[in-house]
Specification:
11 helices, Ferritin, mainly alpha, 284 residues, 2 domains
Length: 284
């Protein structure tokens, strides 16, 4: 019992420290106010546990810095919602303690209210333009992965495939950015067309660079293709998880859809490359 209470107490002081720091870092007054209120509630919870344990606890520094770094890299929305998922185990502990400690049940109820407030408060630029990022990344994965598979079989030289893929990818990223600019200007007046175009173009270009890099590592063309496909899978896994957390969407469904479409197109393009090479008797 005492160990459970001490664990819960340390969790509260850690989250108080995290929310306090996030409040200092955010530039949005509304978000800052909500974070400060939640930080104050976490301190109240910590003090309640202290009256029961009669001990002082220090924040978990590793957890503290991990969430701050996560917020810096992936944004406030992802960091907070990722922390919400981590609070599931804490709620279970509160529910267990609640049978003998009514205070624990009160804290658990307030934790639930915190989550609702957090979900309602988020207004972050990178989340507003996440659709533009998804568009650029999805198109780059599907188009370039398929093209690299076809080029690999048709051209048979890794550096040549890399150059062709890079030229095509850079051109396509500019085309996608321009299309997104026009589309946003005409269909979504709530967003800045130029900013939307930049998010789409950069997402596309970064994906292109990641996918073509293996072809410049002096590998066999099929080794380079295998590495490019592995990179594509890694990008799909990472981005699917990010979206599932940031937008509360099912991870498995999004992952399956992206994997099936991306690798399905790659396989089809590989077959086309084989047919072209066989029919035209191309030898390079």
């Amino acid at each position: 019992m005492m160990q459970e209470m001490l664990r819960a107490q340390r969790n509260e002081i850690t989250e108080h420290s995290i929310y306090t720091k996030l409040a200092q870092l955010t530039r949005t007054p509304h978000n800052r106010d909500v974070l400060e209120r939640i930080a104050a509630d976490e301190m109240k919870h910590y003090q309640l546990w202290r009256t029961l344990t009669h001990q002082e606890m220090k924040p978990d520094r590793l957890l503290y810095w991990s969430y701050l770094i996560t917020a810096w890299i992936f944004g406030l929305t992802f960091s907070i919602k990722y922390m919400e998922r981590g609070e599931a185990s804490a709620k279970h502990s509160y529910a267990t303690l609640g049978a003998s400690l009514p205070t624990a049940s009160e804290i658990a109820r307030e934790e639930e209210e915190h989550e609702l407030a957090l979900i309602a408060m988020i207004d972050e630029e990178r989340l507003r333009y996440l659709g533009s990022v998804v568009l650029g990344l999805n198109d780059a994965l599907i188009e370039l992965t398929g093209s690299l598979a076809g080029f690999s079989l048709a051209l048979q030289k890794a550096d040549l495939v890399g150059v062709v893929g890079l030229i095509m990818g850079v051109s396509a990223s500019l085309s996608m950015a321009a299309s997104q600019y026009v589309s946003t200007q005409q269909e979504d007046p709530g967003k800045a067309p130029a900013r939307s175009a930049v998010y789409t173009g950069i997402a596309y270009l970064i994906t292109v660079i990641l996918l073509v890099t293996p072809y410049f590592l002096q590998l066999d063309v099929y080794e380079a293709l295998g590495m490019a496909l592995a990179v594509a899978l890694g990008v799909i896994l990472a981005f699917s998880y990010y979206v599932s957390v940031a937008r509360d969407q099912p991870f498995g469904k999004r992952l399956t859809e992206m994997v099936v479409v991306t690798f399905g197109v790659a396989a089809f393009s590989f077959i086309i490359g084989l047919l072209v090479r066989t029919a035209l008797h191309i030898e390079i």
